[in-house]
Write a structure and sequence with these properties.
- This protein is mainly α.
- The protein is about 80% helix and about 0% strand.
- The termini are far apart.
């Protein structure tokens, strides 16, 4: 056990979740920048939500906006 009170297995699990969360965040940011239609302020709004709310913002975009955009635009 180290100073933080967690063992190496717990540290590895936290590291894996951190990397997966970061990859998901980057994927949603790239998806928004490249595929979101540029009409109005929707694109800027979603980019700001993803950037400032980080993984939670990316999850909101993934579950709320992305399916609606794919149904409307097809990509």
């Amino acid at each position: 056990m180290n100073i933080l009170g967690i063992g190496p297995l717990e540290l590895l699990i936290l590291l894996v979740f951190g990397i997966l969360g970061t990859l998901f965040w980057v994927w949603m940011l790239i998806d928004c920048v490249t595929n979101e239609p540029g009409e109005g302020n929707d694109k800027i709004f979603w980019i700001l939500i993803i950037v400032f709310a980080q993984v939670i913002g990316a999850a909101i975009y993934f579950f709320v906006r992305r399916p609606r955009r794919r149904a409307q635009v097809g990509r």
